[in-house]
Structure formats: C-alpha cells, structure tokens
C-alpha cells in the first residue's frame, strides 16, 4: 500500500513537474525568439551501441560520434558509462539524459552497495533505471545497454526510454541498431571466446558506423569479466584522419628578395603605476 | 532536429525508409509495444496460458523472444499485452504488493486478489496506461481461474480468454473449438493452435509460442519454436 501510494504520488508528481518543465521550456523558446536567437538543440548521440554475452562475461561496444542536428559536435565522445566496478552502461539518445541518468544510478548503486556490503547486481541497476525512466514517462530520452558480471554470472539488458527492459544474450540500440543487429543475427553463437566476442562486437559497431549517418568515428569496447574490466578506448580507430601528403607553405628563399628596410619603433615610457595585491 | 517524444500508443508517424533516404540520422522514439496474442484457458485442476514472443518499436522487432508470461506469485501468472513499459511496471508493482500481502496472510494468495490488484492500478490510471492483461493461476479455494483485465480497467472472470492485437483473428476459432471439460493436454493443443493461427495473420505477433500450465503440482513451462508450430495452411 505504501508502494501503491508512491505509484500514485509518482503520477501526481509527474504531472506537476513535467507540466512545469514543459511550460518553462515553451516560455524560454518564445522569449529567445523575441530577442532573435534560438534555443540550442538537444545534442543527441546518433549512435550505435551493442552488447553481447560470451562465455566468461559481457562485451559492450559503442561508436564515438555525437551529433547536433546534421553537424558532428564531438568526434570522440565516450558512450560507455561507469555504473559500478562490475557494471557498465552504453547510452544512446539524448546525450545529457544518458550521462545524467547513468551518473545518478551509479551514485545510488554505490550507496546501496555500501548498505548491503555486497557487490551490486546487474538486476538491481536494471530495476533502478527502469523505474526512474518509467516515472518520467519517456521524456528522458535515454536508451541504454546495461551489462555486467555479478555473483549470478554475466547479464545483459536493453532499457528503452519509456522504461521497458529486455534481458537478452545480445542487444543493439541507437540509430545504427538495425545494421549492428544484422551482424549479430548472422554470427552470434552462445558461449563464444573473448576474442571472438570482441571481434563480433567490433564488426557490429563498424556496420553501424559505415551504414548509419548518425554513427561514426572510432569503436570503443568494454570487456567485463568476473576478475577484471578492460575498458578499451579506442579499440579500433575505424576513421583515422588522413595525413596530408603535400604542404602549401613555401620555403624561405622561393621568392627573391630585392630590398630590405628595417625600422625600429621607439616607445617612450610615459607613466608607470604599481598596484599591490592585497595578500594576507 | 527535434527529438519526437510520444507517451501514448499513438506512435509517431512512421518515418521509415523514406526519411533515412533523405539523409537524416533518425532517432525517432516509438513506444515499445507488445501488441501480441495472449490466451488463457481454465481446465479442471488448473489453467493453461500462452503468448507469442514479439515486441515491436514501430516496424522493428525489438525482441523476438520475449517472455510475456510474467510470474506474479508461485502459482499466479499474468499475460501482458499493450505497452511494454506500462505492463512491466504494473506487473512488478502488483508482484510486490501480492508478495507483501501473502507474507501478511502467511498463506498463498488468491488469484482473485491478484486480479483485483491489477484492476485497481489499471482502472485508476486508465488515462495514462495502455495495458491489456490476463491474470491466471491456481489457488486452493477456487482452483484454476482466468481473469481478464483489458484496457480501461474492467475485471471479469472467464473460462477462456484471449487478448492482444492478434486475438481478433481467433475469436471464431475459439468459439468453435473450445468445449468445457477439456483436460490439460487438450487445452495446451488448443492454445498452441490458436496462437499459431493468430501469429500467422497478425503482423504484430510472431516468434515462438510460450506455454505454461499452472496447477496444484506447480508450474510447467514449454516453448514451441517456429518450425514446430502446428501448420494449417496448405497454400
């Protein structure tokens, strides 16, 4: 019943806060257009993110492009976020939402872990994330791939902005998810070795990078096993900037010098004042 | 590019391949739906429940092996259809409430109690939710029971019930083939056949057929893979 009341309060609180947030944003937009500028567009990570469960753990992968409309805002952003020593989370959707959501849950999970005295479980992180996202009814645009290894083995979840979750052996999210899923559906096998899993994830992200306009740049990987976490950034610089073969600079002496005249400019010191800094 | 956000099941206009060819990186938020076909049948001594396994976001299948038969208590399960987020959240809340209630009572809870908890949430928040749920299970007092809580929050007990978008295609099949007094195996076959027919015709249903039977002995779960489904079509 206490929980029922919370559910009730959630909806009550939700309508109040979301409404006020919407009205504030609407007012800001109007005021901004009056002055002549526009409200900045939300920076989104177009994104391809994916995860796979292999024999000893999970491999998470992500591209590194963040877009603002049609422009690449960040060529090398980090989309694999830390949740706890054994749990990491990839985020697609609105960049600020994924960043803040994962940081909030990471903080709460650390407190929870200190209370219980145990290493946190992936299912706990999943519950916390889905309950928060459901409370905001999809207005927090965070689509997440949550993966980690705990006392019950390796786990992988996909979490959608409205708060639904799926527990699966392989998941993809983001605008490049269809390209990545095509690679997974072709080559996934249960109980793969670590190197095969890393190669599979790398290929899936590469499919997203090269076939989706919203994804690009490098491939980051995060391999989580019972004993260690390997955060490989970048794992693969799939889009290295080329080196120019030539140079437009001309060497000194290319153009012949006919005459040279040097005129030193004498400056006269007129006034000098010293102001001591108040250091106490 | 504005991020389109829709909280109701009225998905945003299908942008689809047309938009992608215009060169726009689309992060369009469709609501994740379990449009589904779900079914529950009572027999003397328990219930048989079944569901397909498809979850969609727009035209993309987000999960092709979903388990829509969610455990609420040891011998009480629910079949979920509608918005995936809404039904998962409600099921988790009801599971918590029922678990608490069961500890207070110090005995297994009644299926009718579980159904009423679903009804309470679904009716109170009927404007915000899109959830069609079948609650089914076994208890000592009334044996096997099936309760239907469709969108809007009505509660009604029925001997056999179907739900979800694919259910419309099998009402006729149900009316013709359901007879009271069937045993467990006959109920299983009926459910599998009905779900196969619905999955064949409904685009939002597909994948595998998940079956479960709940009785005094416990819960028995089965999966029928795509190539093992009963075939009806000759053309």
Automatic annotation (TrEMBL), chain A:
Intracellular or extracellular location(s): Cytoplasm; Nucleus
Record carries keyword Protein transport: no
GO MF terms held by the record: threonine-type endopeptidase activity
N-terminal signal peptide: 1-15
Domain Proteasome beta subunit C-terminal: 238-274
InterPro entries per record: Ntn_hydrolases_N, Pept_T1A_subB, Proteasome_bsu_C, Proteasome_bsu_CS, Proteasome_sua/b, Proteasome_suB-type
GO cellular component: cytoplasm; nucleus; proteasome core complex
Reactions performed catalytically: Cleavage of peptide bonds with very broad specificity
Pfam families xrefs: Pr_beta_C (PF12465), Proteasome (PF00227)
Active-site positions on this chain: 47
UniProt record, GO biological process: proteolysis involved in protein catabolic process
Keyword set, alphabetical order: Cytoplasm, Hydrolase, Nucleus, Protease, Proteasome, Signal, Threonine protease
Quaternary structure, from the entry: Component of the proteasome complex.
Protein role: The proteasome is a multicatalytic proteinase complex which is characterized by its ability to cleave peptides with Arg, Phe, Tyr, Leu, and Glu adjacent to the leaving group at neutral or slightly basic pH. The proteasome has an ATP-dependent proteolytic activity. This subunit is involved in antigen processing to generate class I binding peptides. Component of the proteasome, a multicatalytic proteinase complex which is characterized by its ability to cleave peptides with Arg, Phe, Tyr, Leu, and Glu adjacent to the leaving group at neutral or slightly basic pH. The proteasome has an ATP-dependent proteolytic activity.
Family: Belongs to the peptidase T1B family.
Name of the protein in question: Proteasome subunit beta
Provenance organism: Oreochromis aureus
Gene: PSMB7
TrEMBL record, chain B:
Transmembrane feature ranges: none
GO terms of molecular function: threonine-type endopeptidase activity
Pfam families: Proteasome
Catalytic residues, chain numbering: 36
Keywords: Cytoplasm, Hydrolase, Immunity, Nucleus, Protease, Proteasome, Threonine protease, Zymogen
Coiled-coil spans in chain: none
GO cellular component: cytoplasm; nucleus; proteasome core complex
InterPro entries on file: Ntn_hydrolases_N, Pept_T1A_subB, Proteasome_bsu_CS, Proteasome_sua/b, Proteasome_suB-type
Record flagged with keyword Phosphoprotein: no
Catalytic activity: Cleavage of peptide bonds with very broad specificity
Subunit structure: The 26S proteasome consists of a 20S proteasome core and two 19S regulatory subunits. The 20S proteasome core is composed of 28 subunits that are arranged in four stacked rings, resulting in a barrel-shaped structure. The two end rings are each formed by seven alpha subunits, and the two central rings are each formed by seven beta subunits. The catalytic chamber with the active sites is on the inside of the barrel. Component of the immunoproteasome, where it displaces the equivalent housekeeping subunit PSMB6. Component of the proteasome complex.
Functional summary from the UniProt entry: Component of the proteasome, a multicatalytic proteinase complex which is characterized by its ability to cleave peptides with Arg, Phe, Tyr, Leu, and Glu adjacent to the leaving group at neutral or slightly basic pH. The proteasome has an ATP-dependent proteolytic activity. The proteasome is a multicatalytic proteinase complex which is characterized by its ability to cleave peptides with Arg, Phe, Tyr, Leu, and Glu adjacent to the leaving group at neutral or slightly basic pH. The proteasome has an ATP-dependent proteolytic activity. This subunit is involved in antigen processing to generate class I binding peptides.
Protein name: Proteasome subunit beta
GN (gene name): PSMB6
